[in-house]
From TrEMBL:
SUPFAM superfamilies: TPR-like. This is Starch-binding associating with outer membrane. The keyword Transit peptide does not apply. Residues 302-506 form the RagB/SusD domain. It comes from the Bacteria. The keyword Signal applies. GO terms for cellular component: cell outer membrane. PROSITE patterns: PROKAR_LIPOPROTEIN.
Amino acid sequence: MNTKYIYPIALSSFLFLVSSCSLIFDPIDTYSDVTEGVNEEGDEVVFRDKAAVEGHLVTLYNQMRDRQEHWYLDLLLIADAHADNAYGGTTGAEVIPFENNAIEGSNSVINRDWNRYLEDIARANRLIVNIDDVQDATLTTAERERYKAEAKIFRAMILFDMVRLWGSIPVITTEAEDITSETIGDVYGDYFPSQATEEEAYRQIEQDLLDALAAAPDNNPSDKTRFSKSVAKALLAKVYAEKPIRDYSKVIQYADELAADGFDLVSDYSDLFGMNASNTDTKMRNTQESILEAQFFSGGGNWVTWMFGRDLTNWNSNFTWAKWVTPSRDLIRAFQNEGDEVRYQEAIVYYETSWSNYYPSNNYPFMYKCRSAFSNIIKYRYADILLLKAEALIQGGGDLAAAADIIDRIRQRAGGLPRLSSSVRASKDAMLDALLKERRLELAFEGQRWFDLVRLDKVEEVMNAVFANDSGRRPQAYPFTETSYRMPIPQAVLDQNPNLVQNPGY
């Protein structure tokens, strides 16, 4: 029998299985005899042939389409509703704590995300660890390296989300062997892994991405759904902007390499999130600005819009209950104070509802960047990386003029907003404030705001003030402190794995 994945399991179950032949976990994406079993010599194998490998690679890509809860839905709850961009939206006990800073380890959203991320990592590891053992001459060396590179980019993407949420996390890069009475001492740590430090986690992400650059597919302007070299470069730019291994020169390097790969801002901001004239399909896919996106078509639509607002392709579908991530008065005021009509109209829409949790039901705002069953979900886009380059220029080399030019370029695309003033351009602190504001308006409801506040050490300053400035926000349960920068490790996971330690403050 084959060990399929490393997952959190109950200690009692573990001890029971010691006396049996192995640990078996049947994942949601169950494998059939076509994708695993025995080879022609009768030996047990993970991947029987090239078709099995390619089938498993498809399961990795399917996570981008079919399993959006953790990497998109919940990430927006954390990044926007746990920050000042949004309220929780619904009155559910598992959502409100993100709004009023009352998150605990028992929260089911946090627990779901932790387990889903580890499932994704296990899927990536399965390909990375086993592909070189496949006995199929039609699977060339170049193909092996390319598939492995794509899986490493996927693993790095998942680890990056995890480390930014929890800090010290298990960094799992292998598959555990079967548990027997003879092997328990050797494999115990594989099934109950301890946490790596943040820096160790970032180093693994960095290594995966650097390894992938050699063999990953090139950017394809007509297909932005692939884990390409350009996706690796975008992730490297984001990784090098973070504190443990911050390197501003490399942020600039990879931002410039993405420009050389052909990425640029689209001239019309509505091309990124808009619908066609008849509201029957998304306006555009694979724009010049999109680096990685999930795409949805007839017969396999994007269900996440149910959670955020109306489905413009099916007007009354799933619109009888309150939605998540309701735009905050503070964000609306930020758009209005800036005179930013272009991005405001693309980010927020108003409908009449049957509920009034935060606003009058006859004029209720919704986040608008996922507006139909066929809307793209853009995971990475060039404007984000370009603004990170501006941040690196401010923080690293002190080239305030070059950073200001980037911010002005973003503002020009947003309906020709005024250029930054000479007084702002002359001050590093003022430039950082301008950058943070620009990222907020440009990237609202794209899962960035909370991580921007964390990266720039602005959590306490911004979040402890917003409750007094935003009359619609629920009362603050606890003040934000130096221990608020990370989410709690799920209590159920701690109960299962004695080698994990809860983050401070929880």
